[in-house]
Predict the structure.
Amino acid sequence: MAKIQMTTPLVEMDGDEMTRILWKMIKDELLLPYIDLKTEYYDLGLEHRNETDDQVTKDSAEATKKYGVAVKCATITPNAARMDEYKLKEMWKSPNGTIRAALDGTVFRTPIIVKGIEPCVKNWKQPITLARHAYGDVYKNTEIKVNGPGQAYLVFEGEDGTVSKELIHDFKGSGVLQGIHNTDKSISSFARACFNYALELKQDLWFATKDTISKKYDHNFKDIFNEIFEAEYKDKFEKAGIEYFYTLIDDAVARIMKCKGGLIWACKNYDGDVMSDMVSSAFGSLAMMTSVLVSPDGLFEYEAAHGTVQRHYYKHLKGEETSTNSVATIFAWTGALKKRGELDGIAELSAFADKLEKATIATIESGKMTKDLALITSLENVEVLNSQNFIKAIKETLEKSL
Ligand code: NAP
Ligand code: MG
């Protein structure tokens, strides 16, 4: 079989630890034999980030703006322990944070569904994609610990000289205070990213806040979503046969438990933080969650939702066998390849990515899987494979479909 040709390179962001090992195995076994893989390579491994003063991360984000589609391996976000371990010049920022800020994107997380790994919620038949607003609110708060009686005010001083002042509370004794904010620009970007992604997946979009209680703050989110929907997306949604649905957050939580899935659930920052962990653990495994960063102007960065699986990497370094699940990383590649195929009109490339996804799922459904899945599967007579052999088993299934 002739290798599939590409026209535009993917931005390839390599990463750290066990996922870096999987990254190479995936390329060698599942991609390079079939595709004349064109990538612009950026090594976001911590050593190289340190050598380049993290310039490589910024460059990889710029390349994503140039080419439109990136695929990223999990990377270490440095902490004190990593400073010593890698002898870092500085505690470099989270690459995901840097890339998200550069692309002004929203992160969408979707579980990969396979037979034998059943969601805890038995009526969830299709994946639920969670979209989390990644700016502001309690994540950019200002807090004061109040030690005694006094008045707390919320004050805004406009550059035009206007001043707005509201009494927050007349404290009779000690307590706490918190100030939070968001911007119309960020909320609008979030809204557009959600509407675009719903059109892309052809799935309904739900959005929920607590606007009955937060009559200005949360109501502003609701209004911005509504205005943008009415002005820019209503017709497109009608044509695609999908719906935009706004409700209260408590109503959304109650409904989500009763739904069949197959929808996108947009959440404010805190709701998204909490609900994405609930949704992913209820669907089965962190190693089966895909993640894509979508910018309002249509740039895409695909990755796995999990980290670098450090514990497995240390076993690997000691020469011990690992059984690390490569599914979410494989799906990061297939997501990026499909998108590249779609943008460049290379049907073969998208079709190949589809076959690779199907082969991955079929391999697990045939009972061949990594240890993390073997622990939670309802399938019997399961064969637990090591990291390398699991990828080889997928290759065998894939070859049959080509
Ligand atoms: P992690 O890498 O997600 O792993 C946590 C645990 O989850 C693992 O120890 C393992 O459990 C299980 N697990 C996760 N992915 C798995 C897979 N593919 N196959 C099998 N088991 C899997 O999180 P972490 O250990 O907290 O973080 C490690 C590093 O990753 C940190 O330096 C952090 O900064 C980074 N990180 C990066 C990203 C990103 O780049 N997007 C996201 C999160 C964290 P067992 O050990 O029980 O087998
Ligand atoms: Mg969280």
